[in-house]
Structures are given as C-alpha cells and as structure tokens.
Amino acid sequence: MRRQRHVDVLVVGAGPAGLAAAARLSASGAGTVEVLEREARAGGVPRHCRHRGFGRWGVTGPQYAENLVEAALGVGAAVRTGVTATGWDGPLSLDTTGPHGLERITARAVLLATGARERPRTARLVPGTRPAGVFTTGELQQAIHLYGQEIGGRAVVVGAEPVSYEALSALRRAGVRVAALVTEETRAQVGRARATTARLGIAGVPLVTGAVVAELLGRGRLSGVRLRHHDGRQAVLACDTVVFTGDFIPDHELARRGGVSLDPGTRGPAVDGSFRTASPGIFAVGNGVHAAEPARVAAGEGERVAESVGAWLEDAAWPAQAVSLLADAPLRWVAPNRLAPNTPVPRFVLRTTEPLFRPVLEVTQNGRRLHSERVRRRVLPNQGVYLAGGWVGGVDAEGEAVRVAVG
Amino acid sequence: MTVTTRGPLPSEPYDVTVVGAGVVGCAIARELAGHHPLRIALVEASGDVGDGTSKANTAILHTGFDAVPGSLEARLVREGRRLLAAYAAESGIPVEPVGALLVAWDEEQLAALPSLLKKAEANDYHEARIIGAAEVRSGEPHLGEGALGALEVPGESIICPWTTTLAYATQAVRAGVDLHLNCKVEEVSAPPQPDVPGHHEQPDIPGHHELTTPRGVIRTRHLINAAGLHADALDQLVLGRGEFTVTPRRGQLIVFDKLARDLVNHILLPVPTALGKGVLVSPTVYGNVLLGPTAEDLDDKTATATTRDGLAGLRAKGRRILPSLLDEEVTAVYAGLRAATEHDDYQIHSTPEMRYITVGGIRSTGLTASMAIAEYVVGLLADAAGPDLDLTVAGNLDPVRMPNLGESFPRPYQRADLIATDSAYGSIVCHCERVTRGEIRDALISTVPPGSLDGLRRRTRARGGRCQGFYCGAAVRELFEGWGGSGAAR
Ligand SMILES: Cc1cc2nc3c(=O)[nH]c(=O)nc-3n(C[C@H](O)[C@H](O)[C@H](O)COP(=O)(O)OP(=O)(O)OC[C@H]3O[C@@H](n4cnc5c(N)ncnc54)[C@H](O)[C@@H]3O)c2cc1C
Ligand SMILES: Cc1cc2nc3c(=O)[nH]c(=O)nc-3n(C[C@H](O)[C@H](O)[C@H](O)COP(=O)(O)OP(=O)(O)OC[C@H]3O[C@@H](n4cnc5c(N)ncnc54)[C@H](O)[C@@H]3O)c2cc1C
C-alpha cells in the first residue's frame, strides 16, 4: 500500500542544485515544495568534501551544504532525507521508499537534481584481480571524512584534474602516502600552482603523464597497479590503495526510467536553456545534466530553474519541439543541448576529449554558420570550455540539429 | 549451529568430512545432514562458502539439452535442474524461466541446429524447436543484423548462484554440520590400507583420515573431496594418484547496467561449432545483463584476473549479438575458472577401501547439477560405508527461507508490509541495488555470516551496483565493521 500525496513541486536530490532550486521556489511562492534526498543527510556531494573552495567565501563543503539546507528550510521548503525516489507511476508521479513506508507523490512539476558519480574501476574496464583497496573519490572522502575509516598505506591516484587533487588531500589527511598521480593526458588539468605544490610540496607526489592503469594486481588486498605508458612501456607501481577519480557520469537512472530523453554526449537528461527536458513538467539541473561542474554552477542553475518552474506552474506551456545541439568530436558534450524557441541560454558548457590550443568553436545548422568564437586559452580534457549563447535567436526551429565543432 | 573461522578445531572425529564449500560441497553437506544425525564437517580453505568457482559463473539453470547423451553429467544436470528448481521455489532463491535461443549467425551454425535438436531429444528434452529468422527477431528486437535462425530452448532459466550455495550451507549448519572456514587441507594421512589388495569390503577398518590444516587436525572416518579446481591435488594427497588432472579454463565476464535489461528477453547462447564455443548474452536475476564467458585454458588455478584482450574480445562479440548493449555502462567485470579435465564427463569416483569419494571435474554445469550430485554422492557413500554409516534414516531438514535478491520478486524496499513491521527495511543504504539496512543487518547476523565485504555483497547485493561504492561504499563498510568485521555473531 502506497500513501498517495500531492505537492506542487517535487525536487529529487538535495544537493546544491536541488536545494538552491527549492529555496528559490519556496521563496517565490511556488506552493508546496518538497525535496527528496535518499541519503540520511541533505547536501549532496559537498557533505563529504572537507576542503575549502565552495561558494565564494572559501567555505568548506560541509559548511556550504549546511548553508544551502538552512536556506531551503528557512523559506519553508520540505527536505525529506532517507527517502528515495525509486520509480515512476505516471508522467509526474514518483514512487518513494523511506523508513516511514512507501508513498506515491504526484506533483505539478518534477525537478531532477540527482547529481553525478565517478565511473568506478569496473566501468572503466580496468582488467586484473578484484582486490580490496579500490576506491572512487566519492567513497574515499566519505570513508575518511564521514566515518574515519582506515584506508591503507600507499596509494595511487588515477587522474590529475581538480577532483584528483582533492583525493590526494583526503589521502594525506588520512595519513596515506601517495605514490603517484597517473593521468592519460599530457599534463595536469589544474592550475599550475596547484600541480606544482602537489609535486614539490612537503610530501612531493610525482605526476605520471601519458599513462593508464592497465591492470590491478593482488589477491585479497591490492598489491600494485601495472601502468602502461603511451609508448608501450609497462611498469608496476606497488600500492595497497588506488583511487579512480573523475570520469563523471550523471546518475540518470530515474530520468531514463521515466522515459526522459537523454543527450548522447552528457548521458544526462537533454535540457534547454530553461532546464526543461523533453517531457512536459520535468526539469533537470546540476551535475545530472553536465557531469561535473563546480557546486556553485549547480546551485546557480537551481536558482535559475525556479523561474521556469514558476512559469510552467502558471501557464502550463511547454515547447512543442526543440532542436538538438550536438557536439562533434573532439568535443565530448555540450549543455544545455536542446534549443527551444524563445529560450535564451546565457552560456553553454562543453568538454573536449583532446587538448585544444586556443580553439575556434563553430556553431552551424543546415550548413549555415550561426556563431564562431575563439577560446583564448588552451583547453584540456576534463576542463570546462564555455560558449556564449547570444546566437540562439538565429536557430531555425524547423531545421536540423545544430552542431558545435572545432573550426 | 557451528561455523568457525579461527582457532583450534574439535578433536573428536567426524563421521564424514566434505572438503570444499563450493556449491557442490555445500549441497553434499546438506544432503548428508538431511539423513541422519551423523557428525559431519564441511571444511573450506577460504573465509566464506561459495568463494571459488561457485561465485563466478553465468548463473544459468541448465536443462542439459546439449550435454553428452548418456553421460553422468547429462543425467545429473537433468535431475539437478528439476531438484533445484523445486528447492529454489521453496527457499526463496530467485529463478526466472526466460528460455534460451541458440542464435545461428552463419550457414554453418544454421546447419548445426538440427543435430543440436536431436541431441536435446537424446537428452530427454523435448521442448526445443528450431525457429526462423523472423521469429528470432520478433523475440529479440534488439538483436544484431544477420541472425539466420535459432534453436529455442524454453526450459533454460536464470538463477541466483549466491543464495543457492548459501541456502545449502545454511540448512546444513542448522542441521548440525560443522562448517570450518579458513581451513585449507594441506596434508592427509590416510587410514591404514587393507591388507588384501582388491578387497573392497572393509567397513570395519579402524582409524581415521587425518586432515592437516593451518588450524589443526581434523579426524574423519569418511572423506569426500569436493575441492573443485583442487580436486586432483587432494586425490594426490589421499590416494597418491588420481584419475584426472584439472586444467582451469578461465571464463571472463562483463556485467552490464540494469538499464540494459530491457534489451534482451532470452539467454542468447552461442551455437557450438568447430571454431569454438562463442559467448552468450544473458539476463541475470539481479536485473543486469551478462556478456561472456571467454574460454582460456590456463595452468594457474588462481588466475581469476580479467585481461585487456579478454574484455576487448567479449565486447567485439557482444557488439555483433546485441549492438546497443555496448552503449550501456558496465557494472562489473569478473572471471571464473571451470574445473576442466581431460575427460568429457564429471569425475566422481568412490574408493571404498579408503572410505574416500572424489567429486571432481564438475566443470560448467555444477550449479545446476549440485543437488543431484549430492544425492548421487550420498548414494555412493551409503554403498561404500555399508553398516558403518546408517544413511537409511531420513532426518529432518528445516526448510530455509533466503532473502530475495531477485528483481522479479518483491524486494524489501518495495514491501510496505515489511517496512511497517521494521523501518530498517525502508532505509535504503546501497542506492544502485536498493539494499536496505535491514537486509544488511540480517546478513550480518545470519547463520553463515559474511567474512568480508564481498561476502556481504553476495548475500545482499550491497555495493555491487553501478557505482561500486561511490555512494554507499563507506556506509556499508561502517555497518559491516560495526558488527565486528568478520562476523561478531560467531
Ligand atoms: C569528489 C568530488 C569533489 C568535488 N569537489 C568540488 C569542489 O571542491 N568545489 C566545487 O565547487 N565542486 C566540487 N565538486 C562538484 C560538486 O560537488 C558538484 O558540482 C555538486 O555537488 C553538484 O550538485 P548537484 O546538486 O547537481 O548534485 P549532488 O551534489 O550529487 O546531489 C545530488 C543528490 O541527489 C540525491 N539523489 C539522487 N538520486 C536520488 C533519488 N532517486 N532519490 C532521492 N535522492 C536522490 C543524491 O543522494 C545526492 O544527494 C566535487 C564533486 C565530487 C564528486
Ligand atoms: C565462467 C563459468 C560459467 C559457468 N556457468 C555455469 C552455469 O551457467 N550454470 C551452471 O550450472 N554451472 C556453471 N558453471 C559451473 C559451476 O560454476 C561449477 O561447476 C561449480 O561452481 C563447481 O562447484 P564446486 O563446488 O565443485 O567448486 P568450487 O566452487 O570451486 O568449490 C570448491 C571449493 O573447494 C575449496 N578447496 C579447494 N581445495 C581445498 C583444500 N585443500 N582444503 C579446503 N578447501 C579447499 C575451494 O576454496 C573452493 O571454495 C560455470 C563455471 C564458470 C567458470
């Protein structure tokens, strides 16, 4: 037996995106706003990011999360923790499980803010044994910061992007020696200062570039990783811990189970500039639509989506159609990725699979150039590339997909 | 109820000791326990039951349609399937009768179908039939281009291998079997040999087998070798000879995300041809899709690592069978070792004068056949032991009810009734697999509790999903360690 309930706006996920949206929606009088969070505590990923660098004031992740929760509660949004949205019963009806039982909640608008995870070793198809001591940053941070668990003695970190350096600092805090950071790329994908500090700091950690972890070794417990360099050389690095960082993927299960169309590049729900998906009444924001951007970007989207949710609650108007925006290789993805009529997009965010030096981004439709823009710096994989949105008014709503490519 | 993981072993001799707590050894222990209040030990090298080949297979409950007609394997698979299907239904082990299609991708494979059909008939399986390309396509809309036809085997089913082994072990332990884990048999001193060579009826020879393990010595009158990949080595220890050599044949597998489950309706089996066996695509009872296995003859009995070539090869083959499968995320990769021998059949041999039975060469059908193997082995034991062991009185095995790990039956998180009685079943800890705190707690205090996080995964699925612990890993570990790690209950 499911308890049936109705709310005006149901937000799935109490991370920065969902909480910011709920706060703004409640404050703007959108009616009953309820946030479902499957974890015991609201806040999303920042809950377990002990380091500073969230929001604008150098606050730590947990403080940032706490502020967002307070803000949402303060204006009357309901934040229900320990409750999972498990599936759909109708276009805007979600089934939930929590310690108080099963519910079926029907809303006038549903906002998916389910975030993203890092691909684990298995999804990266890293061969070898299946020993203990294999982590993602998410698990590592929780183990260290939420539970104070024992990690290991000597670790290898896979990746050299911001999140990899966060894994590094968590490991250090836990007293784990770090043997190396290993990246397939030719250089670290963080600022020079950060990379240098890690390399030359007190417990200098070498950065191995142009190499992949080709095999995990050891039975029971990890004993080492075999590295394969781009030139074919192989080497074994002894370690009892390996952390696979980055390689984010949206947690898109709920979206897919609800038949919400995904973007082939981001693998998250395809959204337009107002964060509307192709399914009327369903919105999506945060790392669920672009994995992964900083928390403040996710929260910013939460604030902006409030307005479009409000408009939908008012006039129930949904774009009948939208043109897809596709990223051509070597671009990996672009978001937003649906272009709906009369829907401005402040800016687009992109990722590349290859390093690009001051690339020119070209936007075309039906062979016609809509926009061209030079990025005034080098861009590396895993780094955000941004594209202005002023050109979207020129899109032919009846035309074929718009493409963004490197010119 | 006794499960030991460390410390000294009982000095009193056992009537029967089974070495190896895989699906076969556990089934034998259970079958024995159901007969008579004998003193029985089940001795396992690893820290958990079902930690060898039995945890890493393709989880199909076979009909035996393609076995070698007239072989012992053919008979035991056929009987075993019937027995296990009934037992599973009774014990809450998930089984889904999805049926299989052996898809022919070229003329040679198509031409092989009629002889496979004949073989099925010879194995007393009469529901198989050959279907045309159009029917194949309507049954499997996502299949790759070029399927020419198929042999349909509606009786092939998928099953949960983990709870099967665990159910046997649980019932055995509850019925009084002593399960000794972390107890590798390293040496065996045999009972005194009979004086007269060839004289087999020696039920009253005194003495016991003495099994040396790192935890001490186990004495037993009768010994059953269910050591899987190491059955030949144990034969050497006991008999100084053996009828077979085990060559591990590795099978690597890829488990795809649950979101791939709707891509496939049947078990898609390869048509065996001269060029080899090919790989299968199969749904699992957990709602995932399996691709594999490879078949690599090795000589290292511990080589359960996956390889780059192996995984790449599987993906290439999978792309042909079910192209869209490759677009889905991979949840897990693993490898299991089949206990292949130089023979084309199970190697089950009784050596009555030694009060010893070898159960070896249970290569790729042991899960299915396990209960029938157990019946057969207990029959051999009764013959060999004669009045020495009274196996005529059937004892009472209390029925066992396993936690449901299958997606086609209600899971605790979906059950309002259960959550109403205990809110821990409404508290989801592992989000990808929807495993609740209640289930994890139950596993940790169960009759045969897990000795590791992997053991907990096999009992609950916790941490076994697409995120592999990104969300829940630390929380699950906290619950596990909160219970004292390797089983405070013990
Ligand atoms: C390891 C790591 C380190 C990072 N470090 C930084 C940093 O230093 N600075 C920075 O600015 N950003 C950082 N980020 C990025 C930042 O955490 C994200 O941008 C931000 O958390 C995204 O917010 P979100 O709301 O989209 O998703 P999340 O924070 O992931 O929140 C999603 C929430 O939805 C919940 N949820 C999902 N599905 C369901 C469901 N079916 N039912 C109920 N609830 C559900 C989840 O439990 C989760 O709480 C980091 C990210 C990671 C992974
Ligand atoms: C890739 C693959 C796919 C398969 N697919 C299927 C399928 O779909 N359906 C099916 O029915 N079957 C299948 N099988 C076969 C099935 O898994 C096996 O037949 C079955 O698991 C064998 O069980 P077992 O108990 O004999 O061996 P194991 O599970 O290996 O158990 C033997 C146990 O003995 C222990 N041991 C060994 N030596 C000692 C010692 N000296 N002292 C103490 N303990 C010892 C080991 O630690 C081990 O736990 C498959 C096998 C593989 C590898």
Structural write-up:
The complex is a heterodimer of chains A (407) and B (490). Chain A is of the alpha/beta class and 407 residues long. Chain A has three domains: 1-119 and 247-318, FAD/NAD(P)-binding domain, CATH 3.50.50.60; 120-246, FAD/NAD(P)-binding domain, CATH 3.50.50.60; 321-407, Sandwich (Immunoglobulin-like), CATH 2.60.40. Chain A is built from seven helices and 29 strands. The longest helix of chain A has 21 residues, at 295-315. Chain B is of the alpha/beta class and 490 residues long. Chain B has three domains: 2-55 and 162-245 and 343-388, FAD/NAD(P)-binding domain; 100-154 and 247-339, D-Amino Acid Oxidase, Chain A, domain 2 (2-Layer Sandwich); 412-482, no CATH class. In chain B, the strands form five sheets. In chain B, strands 1, 2, 3, 10, 11, 12, 13, 20 and 21 form a nine-stranded mixed sheet that branches. In chain B, strands 14, 16, 17, 18 and 19 form a five-stranded antiparallel sheet that branches. Chain B has a four-stranded mixed sheet with strand order 7-8-6-15. In chain B, a hairpin with a 4-residue loop joins strand 20 and strand 21. In chain B, helix 1 runs parallel beside helix 5 and helix 2 crosses helix 8. The radius of gyration of chain B is 23 Å and the shape is globular. One flavin-adenine dinucleotide (FAD) is lined by residues 19-25, 43-46, 51-54, 57-60, 62, 184-185, 226-230, 234, 251, 293, 336-338, 362-368 of chain B.
